[in-house]
C-alpha cells in the first residue's frame, strides 16, 4: 500500500475493468437470448465494438468518480481518527463495498444497452 495511484493510472484501470465486464456480460446476454448465431450479427458488432468503447469512457468515468468520492469520504474519516490503526481498518473496510458498487455499475451498463438495442 506504499504505492500511490495516480489519476491517469486510476482512469486506465477503471476503463479496462469496464471493457472486460462489458464484453463478458454482453457475451452472456447474447448467448442466453440468441445463441452463437446472435453474436455474428450487425447489431452485436455495434454492441461490442461501439459499446466497449463507450463503456470505457462512460462506465470508466463513473467508476473513477466513485473512487474519487470514496477517497474524499475516507480522507475525512482519517482526519477525524488521525493516522492510526483504526483509520487503516476503516479504509480497508470500505474497499469491498467500493468493488461491489463498481461491479454493479459495470454490469448494469451492458444489460441496459442490450435491453435498448434488442
Q: What descriptors fit this protein?
A:
3 helices; 118 residues; single chain; mainly alpha; elongated
SSE layout and pairing:
Elements: H1 7-34, H2 42-81, H3 85-117
Structure explained in plain terms:
With about 120 residues, the chain is mostly helical. It has one domain (about 5-115). The chain has 3 helices and no strands. It has helices spanning about 5-35, 40-80, 85-115. Helix 1 (about 5-35) packs across helix 2 (about 40-80), helix 1 packs across helix 3 and helix 2 (about 40-80) packs antiparallel against helix 3. The protein is elongated, with a radius of gyration of 18 Å. The model has no long low-confidence stretch (mean pLDDT about 80).
What is the β-strand count? 0
What portion of the residues fall into strands of 2 or more residues?
under 5%
Number of domains: 1
Distance between the first and last residues' Cα: 44 Å
Characterize the main sheet: none
List segments where confidence is low: pLDDT < 50 over at least 5 consecutive residues: none
Structural class: mainly alpha
Helix % is over 70%
Rg of Cα set:
18 Å
Tally the helices. 3
Tell me, rounded to a whole number, the average pLDDT.
80
Overall spatial form: elongated
- What series of H and E elements makes up the topology? HHH
Concise description?
By secondary structure, the chain is mostly helical. The chain is built from three helices and no strands. It has one domain (7-117).
Amino acid at each position: 500500500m506504499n504505492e500511490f495511484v495516480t489519476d491517469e493510472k486510476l482512469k486506465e484501470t477503471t476503463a479496462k475493468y469496464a471493457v472486460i465486464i462489458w464484453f463478458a456480460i454482453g457475451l452472456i446476454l447474447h448467448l442466453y437470448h440468441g445463441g452463437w448465431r446472435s453474436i455474428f450479427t450487425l447489431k452485436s458488432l455495434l454492441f461490442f465494438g461501439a459499446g466497449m468503447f463507450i463503456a470505457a469512457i462512460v462506465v470508466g468515468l463513473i467508476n473513477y468518480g466513485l473512487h474519487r468520492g470514496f477517497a474524499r469520504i475516507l480522507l475525512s474519516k482519517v482526519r477525524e481518527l488521525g493516522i492510526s490503526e483504526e483509520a487503516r481498518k476503516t479504509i480497508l473496510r470500505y474497499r469491498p463495498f467500493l468493488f461491489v458498487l463498481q461491479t454493479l455499475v459495470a454490469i448494469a451498463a451492458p444489460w441496459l444497452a442490450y435491453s435498448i438495442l434488442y
